[in-house]
Amino acid sequence: MKILVINSGSSSVKYQLIDMTDESVMANGQVQRIGLDSQILRHARYDQKYPDRPCVAHDHAEALKVVMDVLTDKELGVIDNLSEISAIGHRVVHGGEKFACSVLIDEEVMKAIKESSDLAPLHNPPNILGIEVCQKLMPGTPNVAVFDTAFHQTMPEEAFIYPLPYEYYEKYRIRRYGFHGTSHKYAAQTTAEAMKRPLEELKIVTIHLGNGSSMAAVRYGKSIDTTMGFTPLEGIPMGTRCGSIDPAIVQFLMEKEGMSIDEVMDVLNKKSGLAGVSGVGADTRDLVDSMNKGNKRARLSLDILSYQVAKYVGAYAVAMDGLDAIAFTGGIGTYEVCVRENILNRLGVLGVKLDSEKNQIVNKIVEITREDSRVKAYVIPTNEELMIARETRDLLK
């Protein structure tokens, strides 16, 4: 069974063709700058990476046609025709409360995804476009929606209901949804495999650190709490997002700076977080380099991140009535040695004992705590595309 995974964004389409007999990646890449000037195709096969090349992709229909063409190209492709693709798995950011698992896409599902678009106005519309184009280009091929929010639908009410007038939840479904669900699910499952223990017996905190960051408390394989909320702005500090702050700051800035609500939200989403505190930027490689040169604000930004992450680990240990393992994933989580060290060194009270030598390993599945560490910590490079392919395969079966 060959499954095509599609992640359709506002100006890009990422793709990956996976042979599920051995879960090997046959080809992957992305079409960039859709609708802008000078569209680019970035494509790689299992045996070769090709230089970026120009393509024509004025809209998502043309971009996905580029994807289909390159997969079947005699020189660049890996299949003879599109009929070899058994199904298409689509990343969909928001499923609202209607989807607690992946689903085969039909008219009713599409209607429900569209109704959730006001909860994710930047993400769901391009996700929908990707699905609709695939349905036209490959009629008869099953399409499956895998939702970022689905994994967190197991949260209890005390975790997802905000202490606002309850009518706002009833009228507008204002609640904690959580995101990065596919990544958190993969990290938890892979951690259990690394520990050689059933996931259903473990209490794991998964930490997805990247430009967007979130954490989840995964008890016995189910998410019972997560840091991102109604939107991906809540939670721990991120690359340019502030994370959780006193909401009264919004009104204060509007009055003191003469800013509109849109201008304040732009600051909170695009000019805060690691970039806002450090003044250096959102890339942790630059922050670490600047910190090592004596930049105190760069160090402060990473200390703030590490403190908040460690604080949530403690909170989630309480929420789960115990803790067996911590899983680091995402770009920062798998590569930034000093960030992991900064976080884990704050967790000695939970019995965490870091192995500094193992912690030097990056982007590989590895335990980074000592043998006598009461709570184990792992590096788990995320693979959301493989998770989407697995969900698609399992649903079809």
From TrEMBL:
PROSITE patterns from the UniProt entry: ACETATE_KINASE_1, ACETATE_KINASE_2
Keyword terms, alphabetized: ATP-binding, Cytoplasm, Kinase, Magnesium, Metal-binding, Nucleotide-binding, Transferase
InterPro entries: Ac/propionate_kinase (IPR004372), Aliphatic_acid_kin_short-chain (IPR000890), Aliphatic_acid_kinase_CS (IPR023865), ATPase_NBD (IPR043129)
GO-annotated biological processes: acetate metabolic process; acetyl-CoA biosynthetic process
UniProt-annotated binding residues for ATP: 14, 208-212, 283-285
Residue(s) at site: Transition state stabilizer: 180, 241
Cofactor: Mg(2+); Mn(2+)
GO MF annotation, one: ATP binding
Catalytic site: 148 (proton donor/acceptor)
Binding sites annotated in the UniProt record for Mg(2+): 7, 384
Keyword Cytoplasm assigned: yes
Annotated pathway: Metabolic intermediate biosynthesis; acetyl-CoA biosynthesis; acetyl-CoA from acetate: step 1/2
Catalytic activity: acetate + ATP = acetyl phosphate + ADP
Free-text remark on how the cofactor is bound: Mg(2+). Can also accept Mn(2+).
GO CC terms in record: cytoplasm
Gene3D superfamilies registered for this protein in UniProt: 3.30.420.40
Subcellular location: Cytoplasm
Superkingdom of origin organism: Bacteria
EC numbers for this chain: 2.7.2.1
Family the entry assigns: Belongs to the acetokinase family.
Role, per record: Catalyzes the formation of acetyl phosphate from acetate and ATP. Can also catalyze the reverse reaction.
HAMAP family, per database record: Acetate_kinase (MF_00020)
Subunit structure: Homodimer.
PANTHER family, per database record: ACETATE KINASE, ACETATE KINASE-RELATED
NCBIfam families membership: ackA
UniProt protein name: Acetate kinase
Gene expressing this chain: ackA
